Amino acid sequence: MKKVRLGLCIGDNEYSLRFTNCIMNHYQEQVELHIYSENAELKRDRKSYDIVLIDDVKNAEKWGGEVPVLCLYDSKEGTEKQEEGGVYWVEQYQEVNRIVDEILKQVGEEIQCVCQGDRLPGKAQILGVYSLAENEYQLPFAVTLATLMGEHEKVLLLDLQENSGISQLTGADCRMGLEELLVMAEKGRYATNRLISCIAHLENIDVAYPVYNTECLCEAQMKTYQKLFHTLAKEMGYETIVLNFGTRFVGFFETLDICQQVYLMKSRGGIGQWREKEFFEELDQRNLEQVRQKIQSVEIPLMTTPIISCERLVEQWKWNEFGDRIRNLMPGVRSVG
Questions:
Q1: Tens-digit pLDDT profile for residues 8-60
Q2: What angle do CA 124, 163, 159 make, to 5 degrees?
């Protein structure tokens, strides 16, 4: 993905430092930042950049030219300013992501409205993975399921489970991830390159980079997740989205309801059976018989050797009898062998 080359010269040193830190921490995959201390130097080099950001309010009209110029201003100090001669005025004291949206807009990256609707576009489907016990096996099962589906279609894995270990698989320290996807869905606006920056590749599937603040997973509501699913399916062309569920959030049961299938990990222990019984009783109390019908119970095979890594477990499950059982559970995919 081509980064936006941004030339920056802001006289307010404190604001410049905070703005720069935010760009480097959250948008370094999208923005290549070049910082100047003197306006004259940036004006001299501005043709080297896709866009320029300044706070030179008094001389802003002299900056017009081939390269778009964004000039920060404080609306409290005067009336709202309009675009003139290639100079665009941006309110200085607002959320940085709004300023980034304006930067992307001016360099041709369209800011679009998040998709909404009761049904996903085309034949897109959502498959859920959930466990009432032994949930350390949720992630390897979700990855196994997703990679098997990925042999036939475009698949995205969204990990909603706190500290599942998925960051060990994505192998990248990326600040753009599921948290950023949820922010875009909540605000109702997104840009394609921001979506792309949030997604890693794992074998034959895509995976959203994990969140850094895991508390946001239970703070997001079902409507936010639903808008996110619609946008990802429409904009990125995913045919299957695999959800690895974690802590129940507001609208958890409604989200289960929009899944085409839910794979419920089973435990052999008595307490696990009690939890499963209470879970189904709660579904009945909520009049969610249709969710009951979508649930496929999956009993985890006995582990005869210690688990060294998730990758090893996924590979083992993928090609043994348990992998064939997963294939048999999957819609439209036949068992191999």
A1: 999 999 999 989 988 887 777 778 899 999 999 999 998 889 899 999 888 88
A2: 5
Task: Return the ∠ at Cα 281 (arms to 277 and 283), rounded to 5°.
Answer: 120
Is 290 exposed, middle or buried (CB count within 10 Å of its CB: 0-12, 13-18, 19+)? Answer: exposed
Rounded Cα distance between 112 and 195, Å, is 12
- Both tokens of 239, joined, read 């045919």
Beta-bridge partner residues of 128: 243, 262
| Two tokens, residue 192 | 């394609």
| Tokens found for residue 155 | 């698949």
Helices 178-187, 222-236: inter-axial angle, 10-degree rounding: 100
For the chain, which domains are there?
A: 4-109 (3.40.50.10850), 125-329 (3.40.50.300)
Residues pairing with 88 in the sheet: 70
Residue spans of alpha helices (H) in the chain: 13-26, 39-45, 96-106, 138-149, 167-170, 178-187, 192-197, 216-219, 222-236, 252-258, 270-285, 289-294, 310-319, 321-329
Q: Answer whether 57's CB lies under 8 Å from 71's CB.
A: yes
**How many helical (H) and strand (E) elements, i.e. helices and strands, does the chain have?**
14, 14
CA 298: distance to chain centroid?
Answer: 27
CB contact at 8 A, 209 and 178? yes
223: Cβ contacts below 8 Å, ≥ 6 apart: 251
pTM confidence score: 0.67
Residue 51 carries which side chain, given as an amino acid letter? Answer: I
Tokens representing 262 are 């839910």
